[in-house]
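Input chain follows. Return structure tokens only.
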Amino acid sequence: MKRAGYYIFVALSYAITLLPMRILFLLSDLMCPVMYHLVRFRRKVIEKNLRNAFPEKSPRERKRLEKRFYRHLTDMFFETLKAMHLTPEQMKRRFFVPDTSLTDRFYSEGLDVVALSSHYNNWEWFSSMQLFARHKAITIYKPLKNKDFDRFMFRLRSRFGVSITPMSHIIRDLVKCRSEKILTLSGFIGDQTPPRDDISYWTTFLNQDTGFYRGAEKVAVKYDMPVIFMHIIKKKRGFYELEYSLISEHPREEAPNAITARYAAMLEKIIREKPEYWLWSHRRWKYKRPV
């Protein structure tokens, strides 16, 4: 029965996303109040996260922010599936990188790069990174429990040439690429909730004690790879720009946790500027800082 549901979902998704993007956004307008009022998708989680992150905002302000988040979330749902039908040229117009000078310089210097991103704006369109990267683009992902949907998302995320690998394989893949003299740009989404036993760095983030993975920092230090921050800027519905910022050019010269701390600070800054574009439905604060 689960597999039948999967095939129905894929068939409907494929058919619906043949429609022009403007029609998909009309469907998003219809879907948004259903998700908010009827399905109430993770309403309690979202309300709690916003209340704890922005205690200075009034209940009315947080409610407006909550509704803007749902609008963005339903837009992103259709945008992500629409990638099944976008050509590389269409995708490059919708997910544009105006300045690649930072990564181009590292490529010219023969350096691999660690790129830290987050669940902000349409992170699923990182699938197009290979279209504008001189490096071999690798994105780290967490395999889904449902194998059918995992294969579906794997195909969608790798459609434009990006290599997809689980975190447990990233060192193996980097070693292989280095042996073949292939320069890599490894993309990590650093704002996920680590398993409790994997949390080795705590900080105050969005007004709360928050644990972070140090996996990207460890990889960068191990291979002395420059670390950049990737900020997705939403220009309008269905159109984004990707902006690169330097986090660390010489990771081995950094104090422990400095790279992760800098990433957390940069992420908090962009979230506070446009909060509705972060993934508030995520159960980010499941664990308490050890006393």
